[in-house]
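Reading a protein record of the kind used here takes only a little practice. The integers have meaning only within a learned vocabulary of local backbone shapes. With that in mind, consider the following protein and its fold in token form:
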Amino acid sequence: MAATSSSEVIDWDEAMEQCGDDEEFLRELLADLRDETDQQVMKIEETIRNPSEAPFHRIMRASHVIKGAASNLMCAQLRHAAMELEQVASQANDVDPSMAQQLMGNVQARYMDLKRAVENYHSFLYSIGV
């Protein structure tokens, strides 16, 4: 897998602008995003491992949380991966429950993309000391 550039992980200049050019504040928000993303990924992972009532809806909601937070901080790769997962979970949520098992494969594939984006985000944060 090719290395991901920091510009693919975050648009630093835009994120700084969102934070009024306050780097300390941005770093705090990035750490908060890491924590929130980790919580939501754990929810998604648990749902995939143990799907019970409305698993696609739960995955869709957790993905939506990540997408929104990542969008606010200009974290495009994370936002895109969460959006893709949210979309396939939404599509799976809208079909006949008898097809759920077939659609779980698509959801799992997008989940793996999200996990890679999260790993890249963690690596970026580590590289800047957050």
